[in-house]
Amino acid sequence: MTDAIKRVGVMTSGGDAPGMNAALRAVVRSCEYYGIECVAIRGGYQGLIEEDLITMGARSVKNIINRGGTVIKTARSKEFRTEEGRVKAAKVLEKNKIDALVVIGGDGSFTGGLKLYEEHNIPFIGVPGTIDNDIFGTDFTIGYDTALNTALQCIDKIRDTATSHNRVFFVEVMGRDAGFIALNTGIASGAQDILIPEQKDSLESLFKSLEVSHKSGKTSSIVVVSEGEELGGVYDLAKATQEKFIDYDIRVTVLGHVQRGGDPSCADRVLASRLGVAAVEGLREGRNAVMAGIRSGKVVYTPIAEAIKKHNEIDLELIKIAEILAI
Ligand code: F6P
């Protein structure tokens, strides 16, 4: 156990995710528990450059475990991507005697933390917070479970109108480079087809799936498309399908940022609480440039370089399940 860490800075960075507040609360309260001072950096790395800091205590994080978004704001900072920006950030940390950072965010945010560590030797631990679930080193990222449930509720509602009007709906869900949300909400909503970047899709197989469904007596269908799908955007796919099947009544819904908001689910609050505590305990144990994650129910620390480089693998069995059940 090290006493070297006396003052920790915590920030949320990149896209907000439900459960970030619960993670912040866990970091702040475990710092207090272990007698470490804690300072929140508002607005991610940009806030760090601008010295937007607030001293935190156990009571500063009351009533936030249940709230979506992030009360300390987040940002994607262009300035921090430059060497000069990082020099400014390091000076702010030195001036405020901050010994280590906890960064709650996705792989872009971890890349920033790693650079700061490599160039200025500032210890940091990452906590995976993104709805995309695309980070290696943890079975689930904070926000993913809530986003799944939000997207699923929306698709269920779309199904009502699809069924009533005998329509084919193309629904785009989030996931910049990853199909976790699409694949899982697709299965859970009974989608006819699911298009994700991890799988090589073709218009022919999409058309075939819709044709088989139509011939088997289905009067409506839902196609869930990940925003990262390589075959094309949801509007292009809908257009191509309409040209092929002129009789189909086709509609498009892009769920967008609605998936990032809302109260975090129980699973996300528990995950965030565990990882926030693990981050502070990791720093106390002298860990550095690692990400705290949970694999098979246990807290694990993965080198940040690995967490950034590798990607969470999609379970290919789920793709087969989706195909079998779309019959
Ligand atoms: O990384 C999380 C995510 O929600 C992606 O799924 C999406 O592509 C992106 O962020 C959208 O980011 P922005 O906040 O810049 O619109």
Provide keyphrases for this structure.
4-stranded parallel β-sheet, binds 6-O-phosphono-beta-D-fructofuranose, Rossmann fold, alpha/beta, elongated, 2 domains, 42% helix, 327 residues
Q: What can you see in these coordinates?
A:
The chain is built from 11 helices and 11 strands. The longest helix has 22 residues, at 144-165. The chain has 327 residues and is of the alpha/beta class. Helices cover 42% and strands 18% of the residues. Strands 3-2-1-4-5-10-11 form a 7-stranded mixed sheet, sandwiched between helices. Strands 7-8-6-9 form a 4-stranded parallel sheet, sandwiched between helices. It folds into 2 domains: 7-143 and 264-309, Rossmann fold (3-Layer(aba) Sandwich), CATH 3.40.50; 144-260, Rossmann fold, CATH 3.40.50. Residues 15, 106, 130-132, 174-176, 227, 260 line the site of 6-O-phosphono-beta-D-fructofuranose.
The percent range for helix content is 40-55%
Average pLDDT reading: 97
CATH fold-level assignment of the largest domain = Rossmann fold
Q: N-to-C SSE series?
A: EHEHEHEHEHEHEHEHEHEEHH
Give the percentage of residues in beta strands: 15-25%
